[in-house]
Amino acid sequence: MGTHLLRLDRVLGARGIRKTQHYADIQAGLFTRPVKLGKRASAWPSHEVAAINQARIAGKSESEIRQLVAKLEAARTAVAEG
User: What is the pTM of this model?
Assistant: First the structure.
């Protein structure tokens, strides 16, 4: 079983927020950037969505969530380079 990619509607449902807030969180470093699937298609790895949701549920601060987001995005780069 590998990582599943979730499209925007599934991510918004998992997070319980609207699209404008989701993209504001990305700009603020509080959520990972999408993976481009094509010119008009993007998605997010399911494990990243789960990790960020778990951090919020655990009451992590915005600073801690930013660190988590940076770590998740760095892991993407490491996989791509490895």
Answer: 0.91
